[in-house]
Design a protein that fits this description.
- By secondary structure, the protein is α/β, with parallel strands linked by helices.
- The protein is 19% helix and 23% strand.
- The protein folds into two domains: 128 residues, Rossmann fold (3-Layer(aba) Sandwich), CATH 3.40.50.80; 80 residues, Beta-grasp domain (Ubiquitin-like (UB roll), Roll).
- The longest helix is centred in the middle third of the chain and has 14 residues.
- The two termini are 33 Å apart.
């Protein structure tokens, strides 16, 4: 078994903004550790634990999360079941039937100025990211991690809901990054942590999972140019390829996306 040191950016940010721990299914696992940390620190931040499951049978950490929220002076929870069982009680086991979306967040009083930590299946994450963006939440206040199987994606070829475009804001001053299949060329800006983040800002479809150079799900053809890695992946991809999740350009590049 190969073992490495912890890596990644799906960690709590030390500030006083409200915290929204928002998960579905087994995606509750990493945000549960964040809830433990906040409880251990006796945090005075406004803290939301918002979770979606099918029913109480498929609701992990139910009692554990309720117990931790009671230890937080500004902790609040909201549970949504998509298919409540006959034994599930509104107000005791869960708060409402249905699914989590931004309309729900607005209705229960979540602030769009919060720090959002999302974890769950890829479809759940995509829907929530789109919804939060349309709600006016800053991209830098949303952190995500996938828990669940990935949907099939053919980068640059499958039908997508958004047309690729240049990133919002003033152009960067770094090397040019061309997404060959999508027909987009943008100047690199170091505000992006990786080529994957730039692709997402341009609505260029790309597969990813770990975002830290471990799983190789994001491996992409490097048609031209050169890159550097930060962090260094656990294992380099095959020649002629790169991992967009942890790479940055150090010259003009053309990617097979």
């Amino acid at each position: 078994m190969d073992v490495s040191a912890p890596r990644g950016s799906f960690t709590l940010r030390p500030n006083q903004s409200p915290v929204v721990l928002l998960s579905a299914g087994v995606g509750a696992t990493p945000v549960m550790s964040m809830l433990h940390t906040l409880a251990a620190e006796r945090s005075q931040r406004e803290i939301w634990w918002i979770y979606g499951a099918r029913n109480s049978v498929e609701h992990p950490f139910a009692e554990e999360s309720r117990s931790l929220l009671k230890q937080l002076s500004h902790g609040r929870g909201y549970i949504v079941y998509s298919r409540p069982a006959a034994i599930d009680r509104v107000g005791a086991d869960f708060d409402a039937p249905g699914h989590i979306d931004t309309a729900l967040l607005e209705r229960i009083g979540v602030s769009p100025g919060s720090d959002f930590y999302l974890c769950g299946p890829s479809s759940f994450l995509q829907n929530m990211r789109d919804g939060l963006r349309n709600w006016g939440v800053l991209a830098g206040n949303v952190r995500t991690e996938i828990f669940g199987s990935l949907e099939g994606v053919t980068p640059g070829m499958a039908r997508v809901d958004h047309t690729p475009h240049l990133p919002q804001g003033p152009p960067g001053s770094g090397p040019s990054v061309s997404f060959a299949r999508s027909g987009i060329t943008a100047a690199w800006d170091p505000k992006f942590a990786s080529l994957l983040e730039l692709a997402e800002a341009c609505d260029v479809p790309a597969r990813w999972s770990c975002r830290t150079g471990v799983c190789h799900t994001c491996m992409t053809g490097l048609i031209a140019g050169s890159i550097v890695y930060n962090p260094e992946p656990l294992e380099r991809p095959a020649p002629g390829n790169l991992l967009v999740c942890c790479s940055q350009p150090n010259a003009d590049v053309i990617l097979d996306l």
